[in-house]
Amino acid sequence: MDFETLSLTELAAHNHPNDAWIAVNGVVWDVTGFADLHPGGAGVIEETFGKDASQVYNGVHGPGLIGRHFGVEKKVGKLTGVIPSVDNDDSNTNSTREETSKPPLTSILSMRDFEQAAQQRLSKKSWLYISGASNDCHAAAANHEWFQRIFFKPRVLLDVAECDTNISIFGEKFDLPIFNAPASLVKLAHPDGELAIARGMAGSGSTIIVPMFSSFSAGEIVESLPQNQPFFFQIYVNPDRAITAKALTGICALKPKAIIVTVDLPAFPKREEYERYEIQTARHAAESMLGGKSEKAPGENNSRSAGRSIASDLTWKDITWVRRLTNLPVVVKGIQNAQDAKTALDLGCDGIYVSNHGGSALDTAQPTIMTLLEIRVKYPEVFDRMEVFIDGGIRRGTDVLKCICLGAKGVCLGRPTLFAATYGAVGVQHAMQCKYPGSNFNSF
Questions:
Q1: 299 — pLDDT class (breaks 50, 70, 90)
Q2: Distance of alpha carbon 353 from alpha carbon 14, whole angstroms
């Protein structure tokens, strides 16, 4: 199909909500009506109406995502001429600093080392997005701290020369019981984004939980896996259930082993450090354009507006709906008390995922390891009849072992996986295989 060649002047004329074009990597797209549907919030789209959005887009998305999302019918033409980019702070679009600041992988012995290396390398925006949590970050801190309050009572004189870490989940065998916790926009950590996590996890004998709000399309992520590699897919339910139904149709065509439905974000949280950064950069941009001070009001940011694409009226009926629609095992992600675990069991769900969103939802929610303990005490049958995943504050192999001892089947790493991903796939694989010399135990 031949497309029209368009000038910058023609592009700039389409800069209104009812008639909006943007250019990305030399291609002009009609984005009329898309701003309110954008998972990252309407503001970031509205700011690029009638402009070249390549710099902003490439900072968080893979090159093929826009075409796969919109399809050829939204392609207007090709842009000609010298293209001025949208004015943005350098740290808004570059995920990492110079490669010279990256410690060699041979010096990385733990997840803490990965975190320190990531802080040195990531731009300020990327670091705040990945490391931050809601409000005062008490829940995020407690997730990790409470692992230190649970102690082992070691037995001795047992033959542990060979230890089997294999696990079977939904009929699929994995060499490790460790997975990534699904997180959005992994391209902020590395240009390969979720592709790096997929390759690194598969190379470690595990697999990826593909996040719905990813930098690359689901198809691209699955294509990066070895042939017939099993994987899981995480979704949010949209306020417009028809949008979710359409998305699930495409996801099911990729044949995931289970659908993981995130349910713990009915109201989008206030992540203060990240929002403070957004406000500061917006004021800086406004002052640069106006030549003076700007009094942009607090709260006019993109981060919380992303919540428009997540249903706040989600109920257990929606879980039943997803099960019927997909005919796949369904895992409820965001279980934070034992009673909800029992409800999921009674409803016939195939699994639960104990999580408080890494402390990025309701601050002061109880630590996830406490929730796992609560379920073990009150409803031990949950572990016999459902697959149980957990994330939140897991930093070492001892943390993983505590989760397994309490009944979890899949132990998921959120921020640590993103920190490791700053090195690409080799970093993720190294993180999964950090070992003491001569040992058969993962040490992290």
A1: very low
A2: 45
